[in-house]
Amino acid sequence: MAQDSADYAIEDDDLCLDNEASEIQRLQLTAPVEPQPQEDLDERVAKIEFHCSVCNMHEMVHYYGRAPPFALGIKFREDSYVLRDPFQAPPPRWQSKPEFYVALGVKCSSCNSVVCKDTSCSFYYTKTFCLECGKVELKNWPVEAQSRFRKQLAAKKP
Amino acid sequence: MSYRSGKTSRKRHDSTRQPLNLVDFSFLDHKSALSRHLFTKSTRHPVSLVENASDFWQFVNKYESMLRNMGQSVLPSLLNDSEHKQLQPYHKSKHLPLQLDEEQVKDCEGDELQAQFQQLVLIYLDFKQKEKFNRIKKLREAQKALPIARFKQDLRASLEESRVLIVAGDTGCGKSTQVPQYLYEFGYRSIACTQPRRLACVSLSKRVAHELLDDYGSKVGFQIRFERNRTQHTHILFITEGLLLRQLAMAENLEQYDVLILDEIHERNLFGDFLLGVTKCLLRAKPQLKLILMSATINVELFHGYFKEEGARLLQVPGRLFPIKLKYMPPPALELKAGQATAGSKREKSSRLDPAPFIQVLSLIDQQYPTTERGDVLIFVSGVNEIDVVCDAVREYAKEQTHWLLLPLHSGLALAEQDKVFDYAPDGMRKCIVSTNIAETSLTVDGVRFVIDSGKVKEMSYDASCKGQRLKEFWVSKSSAEQRKGRAGRTGPGVCFRLYTQQQFDAFEAYPLPEIYRVPLDTMLLQMVSMGLPDVRAFPFIEAPDAERIEQTILSLKQHCALSVEEKITPLGSSLAHLPVELSIGKMLLMGCVFPELEQLLTLAAMLSVQNPLTTRAFTDQRCERERQQYESDQGDLFTLMRAFHEWLQLKLSRESTRKWCQKLGIEEQRFYELCKLRQQFQRILESCRMATPKNEQLDSKERARRHGELRQLKALKRRQRYEQPRQRKLLKRQFHEAEQQDEEELGEDMRDVDFRLRHDHRQLTLLARSAHLSSHRDVVLLKLLLVSGFYPQLAIADEFNYCKGASQQFFHTQLKPFLSLHPNSHFAKDFELLKLAESDLQEKPFYYTPKQPLSERHQLLCYQSLLETAKPYLMNCIRLPAAQTLLLFGYAIDTNVGLSRIVCDGWLGLDFPQPGSGLQLLSKAIELRRRWSSRLYDKLNELNNSSKDSSSVAAAPLPVRSDSLWSDLLDFMSLDVAYSIKRLLPADQKTLYTRSPPTYRLASLTSNPFAADFPLSVNEEKGGLNVSEHVVYGCLAELPWTLAMETALQAQPWQCPRCDYELEQFDVLDQLLHRPQCKAQQRARVSNDREATVAPTSSSRSGSDHYCESCGRHLKLSKVDILRHRVSCTKKK
Q1: PANTHER family annotated for this entry (chain B) (predicted)?
Q2: Residue A32: pLDDT above 50?
Q3: For residues B116 and B119, what is the distance between their CA atoms, to the nearest angstrom?
Q4: How do beta strands B448-453 and B494-498 pair?
Q5: Taking a C-beta distance cutoff of 8 angstroms, is the pair A15, B711 a contact?
């Protein structure tokens, strides 16, 4: 009853979307669940630093590894820096959402420096190479991969 | 179990499958069979792997045709995990850094088609990943490209060295969006950034949240008057200047922020200037606080100098503007005027704006720039009327040149209309936006290539001499002209046409006049005092207003009892400072707190505080006028609006659409929503200082259940809207006026309505509707009383010759300014007869009353909310009131003669009471009521003050509202029928007004106060006579021939005390007063007053005996004295 009446005391704050996120969860969940706000919050906060060694792209990401808990149906072939998708509304707790992930970059497979996914910074063929390492490694690749790499180099932004 | 078999089948597939060839095959043909692979394996809640299935299928279609075109129609067989890691041989899928998670996706059971389809899903997901990555990357690149970005490290270094930093940069340099983010990156976690406008707070907070990739989080928030979305996780807060000021006024908020950013300080508005001074003081009190000031590159040295002693650093950031060609095109004055006359001038005014030069420029643009080159036109004129004039002309011009799309833009337009200027023009067409200076800084319209600047602006100025505002046209300042020009170069090179000469430009002022010189200072000064500033004169203004004006303001604050004589804040004053409204409205609310039906007052006060809900269209469109008719109240526009608001609430109650209804009446619905929010805010403030008791109307269980369902629904709607993209720019339609109706339909769910319903359950709505319903005359009169209590001394009296003049010749005078008009849109301007005395209202004058003013019981005064001078000086938002009663209840200085036949209020309105006893009756009643009212208020204020000092132990208990007869007594008083005449005193009258002599022997014989027993009598040294109450001086007015004649005439009449059997041989007022304190009946009445207070009318006792007058042959029910009086007048008539 007490919980109910809280629902009716519609104050300004209620509308100010303070608790919108938790409100939404409460409404969408069929069964009431013990709230664990702190834990919930933690997984939403980006705490891992990502810094592209080539272009200086700098972001905080949520996950580093191959299988982000928030990614639905996919895994990455390499350890990746992954962001929860900022362009979609977050899914309710314990639910997943399609394509709710954006991989920003990985460590170069040969020099181990962090690079972003930009075509000016890295190239993927079976694994990721920063462009500098790619130039060295390409001799071992099939010609199709080499030509694709060269094309990418040529299109590289100044 | 199932996936193990999946794995085994996958191992087999290479040898058994036939490759697919897209030449004779398409995945799209197997859509229904394959679609299940777009979902996860989980049987209970399968979730889609892709955000948007139709987008996916489109991708499939494009991808297939691409492969076909490239001659790669044979799909290569798929690789297994270990093959993926080998460099040789080449396989396209080795470029995919993703793989499907077998544990989650459905099994293909060795089917090549299904496996290839899953591969396609993977290619799609990888493609989408690249898209999203690029979106982020692009965002970052755009940020890096902003001029401010190069200064990021400078900013960091400056902040380490100094506590005050000034960032000066022109529009488009990115300071407003980037600086808060930089600070966040530097590690500041509690950043407040002020904005002069509410809208900017909202849009900036959205933008910055987006750039921080936190659209759906709460790192960035905003707080504006009616809304906030700040949470405990908010690190960057965009807040309006006024709100931050109120926050800083409370000591506990001082620790809240570690850095303050004041944006747009070059605008020099009142709050901005005030904030500068406050933060200057704050820097001293809080050594950890950092301050960043941001401005356009306007008068930067002023700010730099102001914070010199704090060691302010200055960072100048170049703007990003494309080159703009400047053309001075002054209209060749005479020949054009002649041309316009033939073109047909509809209106009479010669001072009317000539639209011809604007059209000339448009036609010049048509000649010189082909319509294939995009680019819109922005015209700056000074005001709404000017916009109409130019729009009429452009419309005419656009009949032939049909590629012009006309869009007016000013703050009076409905918000949806304003938004249209952001839409795109179709190819080959140009928008022509005709705007006030709202588009100079407040609104930024991209895509403008041509600016036409009239060089004029209408600006509000404040005239302290008449306490009125004036809206006048001026030349703009140089800096405004440059701002206007700059609007042409935001998206590409542009042209600016100035309709004045270079010489004129050179003579412009450098900067616009700061607002502090143009508005009343009372609210600001009161807030300063309440913030604890010991002497407002010592406030470190960046540019101080006139010392004279500060003194005047302090005086008026004292008159309102907001400040004590020692200029300390009074309980009333500190309560007033808490209310975010004009002083007068605040006072009204507080005065009304001792009023039992506070609900109605709250609604009324909120109505007075929002912008007029009636749009310009409401007065120009015949249909709106007709629709509004039924709500018109002859009590004035305020009451008409209350009726309309009540009807609106009724519609809400019956769940009907209000949007259309508002449209029909020409009402900007947003104002009504604001009104409700404001009202709620008032209520909360009054409750929080325990001036009002919270209403606890609980829903019963059935209602609660219904409400619960409703809430779920509403919240779902709200959630959907919240996650929707903001309004997208649309393509404008050619004839957008016809499309208007349709647009309304398309808008779908009315989010403001959803918001409103979330906030108000059925009970609350009913309560609100009741509060807007002024059913009885009693309600109206009481509210009027409360209105005047706030607005006094804003009164106006009709000109004495109004009775014989027409509508346009009706004039009114205030104490400070003569010859004012009613605003032409107001009800009283149309129905001005309401303010006149009817023939039947006039009363016969006694023979001794010789002045020519009419004698009546029906004299009225106007009480106005504000005084605004545009074309003429206008009284705004008037209500009408019985004159004498109002003056005696609210006047600051009330002076009388000994016989109480003459009363002068505040030295400018003279009341004559030639009927014996009527002056005494009215005045003593007024004094009594007024003292009861104010003691009630002060009891309450003091009680609150004491209890808040005591402890919190009693704090929870709300103060009871004593129910008694004060209000019904006030109502009785307002409707007392007393005949008098009223006259505006001229300076000549004022010279001989007072006796200025010490009290005569007879006056001195008054030893106890006959008007207010507990108010000690004292001699008034200045005017003469005796101070008999806080506001009344008895016996100081000099006698006039007619008052002497009246005295003589009355000497022939006896007088009997209406309460006891005391009799006087002569009708002598002083003797009557001498009797008062002795009168036992009076004393008894006074005692009972405090309990139930049924005060018998003073002289005309209603319980009289039946009497037959022989001379006029009528049966009369009169008291003894009245019989005598009647006899005198009856024989006189003969």
Answers
A1: ATP-DEPENDENT RNA HELICASE, ATP-DEPENDENT RNA HELICASE DHX34-RELATED
A2: no
A3: 5
A4: parallel
A5: no
The token pair that represents A153 in the structure block? 């180099």
Confidence tier at B1110 by pLDDT (50, 70, 90)? low
Chain A CB contacts of B761 below 8 Å? 8, 10
Residue A129 resides in a domain: no
Q: Which of B51, B217, B233 comes nearest A99 by C-beta?
A: B51
Interface mutation vs chain A, best among B133, B228, B673, B679, most A CBs within 10 Å:
B133
B852 Cβ contact list (under 8 Å, min separation 6): none
pLDDT tier at B948 (50, 70, 90 boundaries)? low
Q: How far is A140 from chain B (nearest CA, A)?
A: 8
Q: CA-CA distances (angstroms) from residue B914 to A57, B981, B1050?
A: 90, 8, 11
Q: HSE, CB side, 13 Å, CA atoms: give it for residue B1016.
A: 1
> In this predicted model, what pLDDT tens digit does every residue of B603-618 receive, in sequence order?
999 999 888 898 878 8
Q: Residue B939's pLDDT band (boundaries 50, 70, 90)?
A: confident
Element (H, E) at B910: strand B909-912
| Alpha-carbon span B622 to B627, nearest angstrom | 9
Total count of domains within chain A: 1
**Quick one: three-class SS letters along B182-204?**
HHHHCCCCCEEEEECCHHHHHHH
Q: Are the C-beta atoms of residues B454 and B481 closer than 8 Å to each other?
A: no
Give the pLDDT confidence of B547-569 residue by residue, as tens digits: 999 999 998 898 888 998 889 98
Kindly state whether residue A147 falls inside one of the protein's structural domains: no
> B462: closest CA among B546, B525, B405, B386?
B546
Q: Whole-structure pTM over 0.90, yes or no?
A: no
Confidence of residue B641 (pLDDT cuts 50, 70, 90): very high
Q: Which residue in B752, B754, B747 sits closest to B713, CA to CA?
A: B754
Q: For B746-761, what is the mean pLDDT?
A: 74
Residue A137 located in a structural domain: no
Distance CA B438, CA B1017 (A): 58
pLDDT of residue B17: 58
Helix axes B777-791, B583-591, angle to 10 degrees: 130
C-alpha–C-alpha distance, residues B484 and B499, integer Å = 13
Give the best residue of A18, A60, A101, A139 to mutate against chain B (max B CB count within 10 A): A18
In angstroms, the CA B940 to CA B592 distance is: 12
Domain that holds residue A48: 17-118
